[in-house]
Amino acid sequence: MDLKERISIDVAKALLSVKAVFLRPSEPFTWASGIQSPIYCDNRIVLGFPKTRDIIEKAIASVLELEYKDAEILMGTSTAGIPHAAIVADILKMPMGYVRGDAKTHGRNNRIEGADSKGKKVVVIEDLISTAGSSLEVVEALKEAGADVLGILSIFTYGLKKGIDRLEAANVKNVSLTDFDILSKVALEEGYISPKEYKMLKKFIQAPDDPSWQDAE
Fold first, then answer.
1. What pLDDT score was predicted for residue 135?
2. Is residue 55 predicted with pLDDT exceeding 90?
3. pLDDT by residue (tens digit) across 84-140?
């Protein structure tokens, strides 16, 4: 088992332990889109658990040094990516900043705060990749400001086809600490879900819009 695989498993265990990623196939959550989903993800919860937070931040730092060796600045997404970017930047003694959802309407009307990213090699720190729309908006804002965006480093990704296709179309690299597939396997091995529920999860991720995943045998 290589380092990245070990990190993926350790992060999956950490997220499950504090219910930052919560699996409930038998009682689905309803996403804003109306999709009935067996998974709920809120990595902000990690911030309230120091031991888990330490695992996540050290994992981000390790993967950053593996995948983005030339990074000069970390930029957090607003708002969930900001604390992770700040903590990891402190660990690695790097400059950091963040990108607002919209530019301020007063003062200097900034959208990008913190370190000056113009002409610098930047990595975007994101908590979650689903369809990748908001993450790509951040990347575009940084590029427009003159940054050389090396890619995104996210804590978790669903691995949805729409998100993968969008990132590929925009030629933007994303590296996630862990993903839906690994987390589902860990959840089965650790007893969070039953074998039947694991099959439900596998069917869901293949076609999230199709509610028949709830009938998986």
1. 95
2. yes
3. 999 999 999 999 999 987 654 444 557 899 999 999 999 999 999 999 999 999 999
Calculated CA dihedral for residues 102, 103, 107, 113, nearest 10 degrees: 100
Token representation of residue 24: 């409930």
User: Distance between CA 180 and CA 75 in Å, rounded?
Assistant: 24
Q: Is the pTM of this model over 0.85?
A: yes
Residue 52's closest CA among 75, 20, 9, 78?
20
For residue range 140-157, list pLDDT tens digits in order: 999 999 999 999 999 999
Q: Distance between CA 43 and CA 53 in Å, rounded?
A: 10
Long-range contacts of 42-50 (CB under 8 A, 24+ apart): 43/15, 43/80, 43/127, 43/128, 43/155, 43/156, 44/20, 44/80, 44/127, 45/18, 45/19, 45/20, 46/14, 46/15, 46/18, 46/20, 46/155, 47/83, 48/18, 49/18
Residue linked to tokens 């888990």: 52
Q: Are 39 and 28 in contact (CB under 8 A)?
A: no
- pLDDT (0 to 100) of residue 111: 87
Round to whole Å and give the CA distance between 79 and 98.
9
Rg of the chain (C-alpha set):
18
Q: How far is CA 13 from the centre of its chain?
A: 15
